[in-house]
Amino acid sequence: MSAAASKASFAVALVHYPILNRKGERSTTAVTSIDIHDFVRTCAMYDVGPVYMVHPAEAMHALLKEIAGYWLQGSGRERNPGRGESIKSLKLAKSLEEVLEEEDYTLWYTSATPPEDELMNIANLPEIEGKHLIVFGTGSGLDYAAMPKPNGWLSPIEGIGMVRHLSVRAALAIYLDRLTQKRIP
Questions:
Q1: Which of 5, 55, 150, 180 could disulfide-link to 109, CB 3.0 to 4.6 Å?
Q2: Residue 62, class by beta-carbon neighbours within 10 Å (0-12 exposed, 13-18 middle, 19+ buried)?
Q3: CA geometry: angle at 26 spanning 67 and 11, to 5°?
């Protein structure tokens, strides 16, 4: 299926609150510049966007705006114009509910240990029409009890090693590669 034939579109969100800490308690994580760059560049490569960074703190939004400004209007624009093009897909939100007020997305949550038995293989998602938002968590995962009910959960990434915790940037790249395999002509 080519991208032109698909009636599905995809966006991603990186949630920094509400997430779980190592003790399983509701918490907040900080935004990192590497998450911003890697998320927007990876999404640009796979023609996925917008890219939402979800964090409740104004200070984190100010940091995100400063980083984006460097690549869009600052000297980073001249040094690496492609990075600026990727950064254009970045959107800021204080909550996932705010994202859903802006766009009517079908929600798909990701987790190394999803709470549901029925899971969607991400490779099948392009067959479902509509706007889809693939939600990634930071910390020790999404605190989905405090979040909007998703349409479903995506199948976790299974490895053969003993570690079950990928970086969120690695998980994004794997999911998007699997998402687009049927879309590449």
A1: 150
A2: exposed
A3: 45
